[in-house]
Specification:
By secondary structure, the protein is α+β, with helices and mostly antiparallel strands. The protein has twelve helices and eight strands. A three-stranded antiparallel sheet has the order 3-6-7. A three-stranded antiparallel sheet has the order 5-4-8, with no helix packed on it.
């Protein structure tokens, strides 16, 4: 049975905890600071409030992100804002991924497609899962890929195929087996966060990123996106965008109350592997 002293200590600890602002409140307070609000408004204009709302919604719904420093989450979201990509995890254009107590921006495969289409240099671009039974032949030298979509035997994904065609007629096709994807993940992935949440999305991103970085036409915007996607977590960088934010804003800012609006949906150098041509009877 708990003693009176124990109960008193527990109650005191609870009271002390309730007096401390939660990480969500801290993030809202930071977003309410005039400096950060202006930064987002300069980038997104009238869409800034809605984008900032999506940051709060994402942070509130992700317990793992709440373990990260709020400013690192905002800094990552700022990168997505400069690329005009939503951070809603359900859309898959851009992700904010936790690495210990720091968050980092990651581009989703739909984000790569979106940025490619903005260049007006791509007539077609896509990446898909290949299921057991669908693959008939793949020759990596001639890039002859033969798939029979009607021959699907199960929901088991055996590989991923990427393709694009430029407006000048140049075409490129690649195929990665699931084993190649796994080898790439183990060698290069800095976090399993994305892979655990949506393996197929991360695999398609890997294939598409490799395809575009080696053979595609990259705009300045796409090059910046590639660099941000590969950037290592740097605590100093996280603090850069807050250089003008006063300490009082950091501590005493009121919680940022935002309207709960829905985010509008947006339409719209991996390691190479030795591959052998093969036929499946």
């Amino acid at each position: 049975m708990a003693t009176t002293k124990t109960l008193k200590n527990q109650l005191q600890a609870k009271n002390n905890a309730s007096q401390q602002p939660s990480t969500v409140q801290t993030l809202k307070g930071l977003l309410a600071s005039p400096t950060l609000k202006k930064r987002f408004e300069d980038i997104l204009d009238k869409r800034a409030p809605q984008f900032m709302t999506s940051i709060v919604n994402l942070y509130s719904s992700e317990k793992t992100l709440q373990k990260c420093e709020p400013m690192s989450v905002i800094s990552s979201a700022m990168v997505a804002a400069t690329l005009d990509l939503p951070v809603d995890k359900n859309l898959g254009y851009a992700w904010i991924v936790p690495y210990g107590n720091q968050a980092q921006f990651q581009l989703g495969y739909k984000g790569y497609i979106q940025l490619a289409l903005r260049t007006s240099q791509y007539r077609a671009i896509n990446v898909i899962e290949v299921y057991e039974g669908q693959l008939k032949r793949w020759n990596p030298l001639t890039e002859e890929l033969e798939l029979d979509f009607e021959a699907k035997e199960s929901d088991k994904v055996i590989g991923y195929a990427g393709f694009f065609e430029l407006t000048n007629g140049f075409r490129k096709t690649v195929y990665w087996t699931r084993e190649q994807i796994e080898a790439h993940r183990k060698k290069y992935s800095k976090s399993d966060f994305g892979w655990k949440n949506d393996f197929d999305a991360m695999a398609k991103k890997t294939v598409l990123k490799s395809l575009l970085s080696k053979w595609g036409i990259l705009s300045i915007e796409m090059q910046n996106a590639f660099n941000e996607d590969e950037k290592e977590v740097d605590t100093k960088e996280v603090k850069d965008i807050t250089s003008e934010v006063q300490e009082a804003e950091y501590i005493e800012a009121e919680a940022f109350e935002v309207p709960m609006e829905e985010e509008p949906s947006v339409e719209g150098n991996a390691q190479s592997f030795e591959q052998e041509s093969f036929d499946i009877k």
